[in-house]
Amino acid sequence: MKSNKISRRRFIGTAAAATAGVAMSGISTPVFANSKNTSDKLALLGGKSVRGDKKWQNWPQWDEKFNSQMNEVMGNRVWSRSKKVAEFEKKWAEINGSKHCLTTVNGTNALSAAWMQSNIGPGDEVICSPYTFSASIFGILYKGAMPVFADIDPTTFQIDPEQIKKKITPRTKGILPVHICGYPSDMPAIMKIAKEHNLFVVEDACQAHLAEIGGKKVGTFGNAGCFSFQASKNLAIGEGGGILTDNTEYYDRLYSYHNFGYASGSVSGQISSITALILANKIRMAEYQAVIGLCQLEKLEEQHKIRNENGAYLNEKLAAYPGVAPVKLHKGATAASYYIYGMVYNEDKMKGVSRKRFIEALNAEGIPVGTGYPNDPLYGQPMLKEVFESDIYKKCYSSNELNFEEYKRKNHCPALIKTYNSSLWIWNGGLMLGTKSDMDDVINAVDKIHNNIAKLK
Fold it and tell me: What is the distance of C-alpha 215 from the center of its chain?
């Protein structure tokens, strides 16, 4: 039976020469080629898949050695916020190098709370990354502010600081960068802009656990950094969120906000035990959530190391294929979370084979890849139109500002649309925790399709 693998020595030894060959001759020169894998019939066309029957690592992961800790917290009947939540907050703050952490029931609430306790309000504008999920901007809308979208750099997937500069007006009061897929946004450049214009910055780091810029963790550059611990995330609790900040007064307000508005630190006054001092919510993390998080923290840094080793390996090898360029880390970024491994598809360099067809072929070889977010820009979604039709927005903004078609035109992001039409997301939870052999399967599958590309047309 033919092997789907190439030898380790040949795989590594041909990388530099192969890269040069592809650059000179398009896709006609095989990369890492040998007769055992690149001449096989594509799985999509009836051949044997590169991955075969091998399974990727399951996600989320749980070690039975942690069962006793869960049994203890369930058995003591203290399930609402208590000592375990405080312990998790302390450790999450420490591992990220932040002064304070406040946990919430989920990442969406973390993002919303961060904006709810800012000074952003009706009539203000917040410049946002458009390459994100709708929950990123809920808090901005809850405060009656106007989201303004600045385009991204399609090679990094991140909001472009130069585009942020173009969107600043006298009404601009904040910036929302999103470290999408776990790749860091250019926070030094963004914070320089924020400092020059006195802007409040909330980092959406929900997908970017332990990602770094110059050794400094994302989520610690802005006024607040928000994380999700939902089941798919690199630190998986099931549901859960966290907010990092170095501002003690802001942290006190966040704590009060997440706990009915009760007194907390600098949020104080003459109170009874049930007196609410600020308009608030109840979004406290539960003890059993925190115990799951504490257990997962024991493995996170080692898993982060593996993800980055595998990410660097894929980046090096896949750079040889001009049609599937790996997403770039901006200059200065020292680690990504690799929550998702991103690539940019170039149909012109793949003999005109559509991205859809390429994805079908790669899936058939056993590699879980998709397009990422659908081609539905956040600035054009019906949610915003409904908000604009609300009484509060009609009282605070002109009819021209609330003209949805005009709003979409002003916020149109061409690079975002280009990315929607070219992005490739590899995600299967534990895939980036795999062995080098697993990563070789990803590369061999791309290589196999690359060398049989004409047969897909």
Answer: 19
Q: 60 preceded by cis ω (within 30°)?
A: yes
Contact 426, 445 (CB under 8 A): no
Q: What are the backbone dihedrals phi and psi of residue 217, each rounded to the nearest 5 degrees, phi first?
A: -70, 140
Measured CA to CA in angstroms, residue 247 lies from 100, 244, 269 at distances of 8, 9, 20
Residue 386: pLDDT above 60?
A: yes
SS3 assignment, position 449: helix
pLDDT, mean over the chain: 91
Strands 125-128 and 172-176: parallel
CA distances (Å), 317 to each of 139, 227, 307, 312, 427, in order? 41, 31, 15, 9, 18
pTM (2 d.p.): 0.91
Q: What is the 3-state secondary structure (H, E, C) of 235-254?
A: CCCECCEEEEECCHHHHHHH
pLDDT of residue 16: 37
Residues 6+ apart with CB under 8 A from 103: 85, 88, 89, 92, 240, 241, 242, 243, 284, 285, 289, 290
- Structure tokens, 455: 């047969």
On the CB side of 338, CA atoms within 13 Å amount to 26
For 93-118, how does the pLDDT look when each residue is reduced to its tens digit (9 = 90+)? 999 999 999 999 999 999 999 999 99
Ranges 264-273, 295-304, 324-333, 380-389: which has the least confidence: 264-273
Q: Residue 351 in contact with residue 457, Cβ under 8 Å?
A: yes
In the predicted structure, residue 389 carries a pLDDT above the cut 60: yes
pLDDT tens for 8-36 read 333 333 333 333 334 333 444 444 433 34
Smallest CA-to-CA distance from 127 within 98, 84, 163, 94 is with 163
Write the DSSP symbol of residue 6. Answer: -
Buried/exposed 181-205: b ≥16 CB within 10 Å, e otherwise: bbbbbbbbbbbebbeebebbbbbbb
List the one residue out of 212, 163, 167 whose CA is nearest residue 185: 212
| Six-digit token string for 71 | 């049994």
423, two tokens: 């992005």
Question: Which has the closest alpha carbon to 137: 112, 159, 104?
Answer: 112
- Minimal CA–CA distance to 206: which of 283, 276, 109? 109
> Tokens standing for 292?
């799951």
Beta strands in 246-353 (DSSP E): 324-326, 333-335, 341-345
**Using CA atoms, how far apart are residues 133 and 442, in angstroms rounded to an integer?**
27
Using DSSP's 3-state secondary structure scheme, residue 75 falls into: helix
Q: CA 366, CA 234: separation in Å to the nearest integer?
A: 22
The answer, yes or no, to whether residue 145 has pLDDT greater than 50, is: yes
